[in-house]
Amino acid sequence: MSNFIIQKAASRGHAQHDWLDTYHSFSFANYHDPEKVHFGVLRVLNDDTIDGGMGFGMHPHDNMEIITIPTFGDLQHKDSMGNSGTISQGDVQVMSAGTGIQHSEANKNKDKKVHLFQIWIFPNHRNVVPRYDQKTFDVKDRINKFQQIVSPMGNDEGLNIHQDAWFSLANFDNNVEANYQVKKSGNGLYVFIIEGDATINGQALNKRDAIGITDAESIEIKANSDTQILVMDIPMNL
User: Fold this and answer.
1) Parallel/antiparallel/unpaired status of strands 227-234 and 188-195
2) What CA–CA distance (Å, rounded) separates 154 from 159?
3) What global pTM score does this model have?
4) Is 87 inside a domain boundary?
């Protein structure tokens, strides 16, 4: 029998800085909740909105898989590996911090905001050589179906990370029903409602709500409006 936890949008940590409006699904920076430190290997899920022309200066990371998903605007990236570029809606970026990297993230445009989800995953190999990758995905390929955007190293579909984890995005029309099959036995699912409303395994969820499900081979999803969903299929053991 599967087990689940529900995390409502309003229960997330929140910080409003001069140029950053951010929500934390798990303990981060000045927000700490001992009940929300991680879900399996999922350590961070930040929901960030950055004002025009502002951003994070160069800062370090190590031994973490970092996935960035912009939903509007343009995010400019630079790092100590020599990578420099922009990611926008439809793009996904991954970094394996490994032995250590530094990077900066800033809103490329001065006249509009940029929004992104940044996700940190504990790796299954420590001190790997740092790496960077990004890809533009066709949003049409996630209409009423799951589009895989992240997968383990060596897989052809999606961007690779050092973990037995699969991320998928789906844009469901109202009343569409879908079944998601867990990719690896023992993995849990953390399902985040980006926009809209859905019922997942009988539990009603709204915009920015999430459900963590363990001990399941599959889940049933019904969209109760036009709904955007992120599914993270991840190991539960660190």
Assistant:
1) antiparallel
2) 10
3) 0.97
4) yes
238 residues of the chain, pLDDT tens digit each: 789 999 999 999 999 999 999 999 999 999 999 999 999 999 999 999 999 999 999 999 999 999 999 999 999 999 999 999 999 999 999 999 999 999 999 999 999 999 999 999 999 999 999 999 999 999 999 999 999 999 999 998 999 999 999 999 999 999 999 999 999 999 999 999 999 999 999 999 999 999 999 999 999 999 999 999 999 999 999 8
Instruction: Tell me the CA distances in angstroms from 112 to 16, 17, 170, one per residue in order.
Output: 17, 17, 26
* Number of structural domains the chain divides into: 1
Contacts of 84 (CB under 8 A, 6+ apart): 76, 77, 78
Which CATH number belongs to the domain containing residue 120 in this structure?
A: 2.60.120.10
Amino acid at 35: E
Closest Cα partner for 192 from 173, 206, 174? 206
Neighbours of 127 (CB within 10 A): 11
111 vs 1: CA distance, rounded Å: 51
For residue 129, being part of any structural domain is answered with no
